[in-house]
Amino acid sequence: MEIKLTAIGIIHTDHKTKEEAPIQGAFNPDTVGTVEIFSEFAEGLKDVELFSHIYLFYHFDRAEPGELVRHPFLDDTPHGIFATRHPCRPNGIGITVVRLTERSGNRLTVQGIDVLDGTPLLDIKPYVPRFDCHPEASDGWFAGKANRKKPSGRE
Is 66 helix (H, G, I), strand (E, B) or coil? Predict the structure, then answer.
């Protein structure tokens, strides 16, 4: 089954290469970026500034589909792609939670962004702690894994 998606905007960051981008935005919470919403979708931003955090859904446009079992960035043991957040996925859909610091017309200023400059934006949803925060959730294989730089050759 084929599904067609349309970009609603573009993400602007200082991350020009995959090597420059952090593994997760939480590793660099002060990194600033801009989310530009195309004019035909700008009306949909009404009231988004009332939220402190938002989800950005985007297309990994510079990642190729990869193996279904692979070495992730934070572990040296292979895991199934659906048990990782690796960018080389069957459908190349990325998600990140960012702090929304400002809205100016069709532009959002965000912090904690881990996305490459020029990445196509697919959707935005508000982060709602009442729905999205699950303190009882397990970390799976991430438990006890220290933050580290991306190992070379893992894409």
Answer: coil
Alpha carbons 58 and 25: distance in angstroms, whole number: 14
Between 113 and 75, the more confident residue is 113
Nearest to 37 by CA among 103, 115, 126: 103
DSSP-derived 3-state class of residue 141: helix
Token pair for 26: 């939480």
CATH architecture entry for 27-142? Beta Barrel (2.40)
Task: Give tens-digit pLDDT for 76-109.
Answer: 899 998 888 788 888 999 999 999 999 999 999 9
Residues in the chain: 155
SS3 50: helix
- Classify the C-alpha dihedral 123-9-67-154 as positive or negative: negative
Q: How many CB atoms lie within 10 A of CB 60?
A: 20
Rounded CA-CA distance 146/148 in Å is: 6
Whether the Cβ atoms of residue 37 and residue 8 lie closer than 8 Å to each other? yes
Scanning the structure block, which residue is given the tokens 């692979």?
70
Q: Which of helix, strand or coil describes residue 23?
A: coil
pLDDT of residue 155: 66
